[in-house]
Design brief:
single chain, 2 domains, elongated
Length: about 290
């Protein structure tokens, strides 16, 4: 077997965690990442028949939470209580590779968590979001949760309305409507690490790749680590511009006619129901 520490998927994963820490998105042990791996990516690095130990899901009601639709799927996921700044230096203790066991009530640890740790407490919420995203786009393999500073600040002062929040972000930069034409979902503050917030986030994930938890952070989903990181990065940059503007008078802004030019150029399908002008709202899918 090849050295798993040299595996491209692990090196990219740990580098992403370091970038998230460096940008201030994941202070201390805040935030988590899960990455759906393919068996062909792993076969040269792990004996998939060797189970290190079994780990039950926690923080969810065993009668209501069911990960069986993901049975047999393998995820690379950050550990509970682990600091993102340490992930790249010591991946064997800070992340793990787990397979959803038969019945969907526990996982089989295939590698990692060598000091006896376990997956993040929000792993069930990640699984719910993975199930939701895979039902929309089978290519979505990444779920990323973090606490971007500017986006978090924005949630304290902006209306908690999905259409208005999305529109404001779109106005902050030309690339925004291109990167997240689906807008952003918004959830009220809820207790983290529970199945309640997991189900609420998953429901939003059926419509949005970005779900904002008011006064807490954001969940992002995508096909690759780069894409998901870039999605959150773009939303965070827009929030930063919004915060810098503050209460000053806006004299220039992107108009919805400008949005339409970008939509036509990049052949994207936005949330027209989030537009303000009736001529564009009429284009919204029923």
């Amino acid at each position: 077997m090849k050295n798993i520490l040299e595996a491209p998927f692990l090196k990219e994963f740990t580098a992403t965690a370091s970038n998230m820490y460096r940008l201030g998105w994941d202070e201390r042990n805040g935030g988590n990442i899960s990455y759906l791996l393919k068996e062909e990516e792993l076969k040269d690095y792990l004996d998939l028949n060797h189970v290190v130990r079994r780990i039950p899901f926690a923080g969810v009601h065993p009668t209501s939470f069911d990960a069986s639709p993901l049975e047999g799927k393998i995820f690379l996921v950050t550990g509970t209580g682990r600091y993102f700044k340490n992930v790249e230096r010591d991946p064997a203790n800070n992340v793990g590779i787990v397979r959803i066991a038969k019945g969907g009530k526990e996982v089989e640890l295939l590698w990692g968590y060598e000091d006896g740790g376990r997956f993040t407490s929000e792993f069930p919420a990640h699984m719910m979001s993975h199930m939701a995203r895979l039902s929309v786009d089978p290519e979505n393999r990444v779920v990323m949760h973090c606490h971007p500073t500017n986006l978090l600040a924005m949630t304290y002062v902006h209306e908690a309305d999905e259409a208005k929040f999305s529109h404001t972000l779109w106005e902050m930069s030309t690339e925004c409507i291109v990167v997240f034409p689906d807008g952003v979902g918004v959830l009220p503050w809820m207790l983290c690490g529970t199945d309640k917030i997991g189900y609420a986030t998953a429901e939003k994930m059926k419509e949005f790749r970005t779900v904002i938890w008011l006064l807490h952070g954001v969940y992002g989903a995508g096909k690759t680590l780069d894409e998901t990181f870039g999605l959150i990065e773009t939303v965070e940059k827009a929030a930063q511009i919004y915060n810098i503007i503050g209460s000053r008078e806006i004299k220039n802004t992107l108009t919805e006619d400008n949005f339409k030019e970008l939509i036509d150029l990049f052949a994207i399908e936005p949330r027209y129901d989030f537009f303000r002008e009736e001529k564009y709202r009429k284009l919204a899918k029923k």
